[in-house]
């Protein structure tokens, strides 16, 4: 239940209905700071209020990946990895036909719509050591702000048979 700000007429009316009358000029009366303190005490581990941390994955007690990562598709971010992507799960990114590629990332949830303007993202330039028109660059999250990428054939990625070394990239 959300209550009005302390000190307002509506808050005083509710306090009176609950039998908690407070003098307006009393310097010991509750304030917004008091409410924050009680909230912190009640929400602490072992408190009476259950706090659900949406920054941690449900399967394991670890912090979720923080970014939306993708490529430029007609001026929009085409998302390949998002905060729901599991750590260690390879995702096909782009073909491995050129040595340099760019990836774009952001923390903005609107990126999930694939309509986010590419100018609202951050660009990273990456290099691969193996160029193969039949292979792809695969990426995967490994830490809250770190990904790895590798060149592999589609049938090789499942068998962990890579054409290049795995490269790490801190975002």
Give the quaternary arrangement of the chains.
single chain
> Please, how many helices?
3
Count of strand segments: 8
Query: How far is it from the N-terminal to the C-terminal residue, by CA?
Result: 39 Å
N to C succession of SSEs: HHEEEEEEEHE
SS content category: alpha+beta
Biggest sheet overview: 4 strands, antiparallel
β-strand percent reads 25-35%
What is the gyration radius calculated from CA atoms? Answer: 25 Å
Q: Numbering strands along the chain, what is their spatial order in the largest sheet?
A: 2-1-4-5
Question: Topology, please?
Answer:
Layout: H1 9-17, H2 32-43, E1 68-73, E2 76-81, E3 91-96, E4 100-106, E5 122-127, E6 132-143, E7 146-152, H3 154-158, E8 167-170
Task: Describe it.
The chain is of the alpha+beta class and 171 residues long. It has helices at 9-17, 32-43, 154-158, and strands at residues 68-73, 76-81, 91-96, 100-106, 122-127, 132-143, 146-152, 167-170. A four-stranded antiparallel sheet has the order 2-1-4-5, with no helix packed on it. A four-stranded antiparallel sheet has the order 3-6-7-8. A hairpin with a 2-residue loop joins strand 6 (132-143) and strand 7 (146-152). The longest helix is centred in the N-terminal third of the chain and has 12 residues, at 32-43. It starts with 8 loop residues before the first helix and ends with a strand.
């Amino acid at each position: 239940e959300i209550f009005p700000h302390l000190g307002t007429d509506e808050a005083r009316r509710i306090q009176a209905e609950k039998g908690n009358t407070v003098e307006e000029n009393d310097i010991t009366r509750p304030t917004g700071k008091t409410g924050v303190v009680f909230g912190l005490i009640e929400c602490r581990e072992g408190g009476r209020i259950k706090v659900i941390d949406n920054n941690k994955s449900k399967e394991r007690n670890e912090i979720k990946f923080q970014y939306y990562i993708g490529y430029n598709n007609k001026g929009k971010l085409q998302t390949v990895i998002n905060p729901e992507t599991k750590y260690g799960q390879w995702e096909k990114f782009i073909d491995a036909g050129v040595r340099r590629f760019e990836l774009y990332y952001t923390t903005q949830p609107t990126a999930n719509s694939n309509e986010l303007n590419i100018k609202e993202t951050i660009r990273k330039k990456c290099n691969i050591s193996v160029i193969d028109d039949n292979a792809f660059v695969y990426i995967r999250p490994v830490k809250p702000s770190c990904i790895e990428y590798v060149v592999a054939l589609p049938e090789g990625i499942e068998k962990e048979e890579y054409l290049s070394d795995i490269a790490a990239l801190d975002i």
